[in-house]
Write a structure and sequence with these properties.
- The protein has a single domain, classed as Four Helix Bundle (Hemerythrin (Met), subunit A) (Up-down Bundle), CATH 1.20.120.1760.
- The chain is built from eight helices and two strands.
- The N and C termini lie far apart (about 80 Å).
Amino acid sequence: MHDGTETQNNPPAEDIVVRKRRKGIYILPNLFTLAALFGGFYAVVMAMNGRFDQAAVGVFCAMVLDSLDGRVARMTNTQSAFGEQMDSLSDMVSFGAAPALIAYVWGLTSLGRWGWIAAFVYCACAALRLARFNVNTAVVDKRYFQGLPSPAAAALVAGFIWVMNDMGVKGADVSWVMFGVALYAGLTMVTNVPFYSFKDVQMKKSVPFAVIVLIALGIAIINIDPPIVLFALFVAYGVSGYGVYGWRKAKGQPTSVISTSTDEPDERGLHE
């Protein structure tokens, strides 16, 4: 006999299987990240084959693609922790290991141990820069980067090689200059100098017609001589942070872009 609380049509509780929704990976932003990773890998392969102009192009393509993946993720609301980690690993290859290896193969080999020391310092600073960026994301002023961003540092190294190669200058002839560029780019990544991030530029807002004309003019100027123009732009950006730092120091304003102290890494003494 049944007391009315059960029916023959209801299966036992132990037979009910609860299907959990699998957590997937967003394709669109990660496609840009993978493309940027390929740019860094392509740059290394080209350097190994002595095609240093193509190696530099690979680094610059990776930089463009890296700037798009985050914006695409935000615009399509497809941000994820997986995407953030994937982006960091891709950046380490494209803007850390690749420029260091290209610089070493192109011009630092003639310096012996000093050459690979310079390449390693750059690579290590890129890793430290990316790790610090991941830790301090929530407390850094979004308008500025803390230290030179790794794509810009890679553009300094690859841009210098591109310009010299385009002028027919061999790496062994300017090996010590390459040494200085690699050290400057690497050490500037781990400083506390503020560099403008351009993150407050709203892509969804309307702009005056003159802005579109200026963009078209800028593209035309770059096409006159891409190696020299691009390298000059990143040299200007690479020293701009020290200008901002000096201006803030002279005005008695805080020079750090961190608003709150963090537990890791230890940032005490850097928030004046």
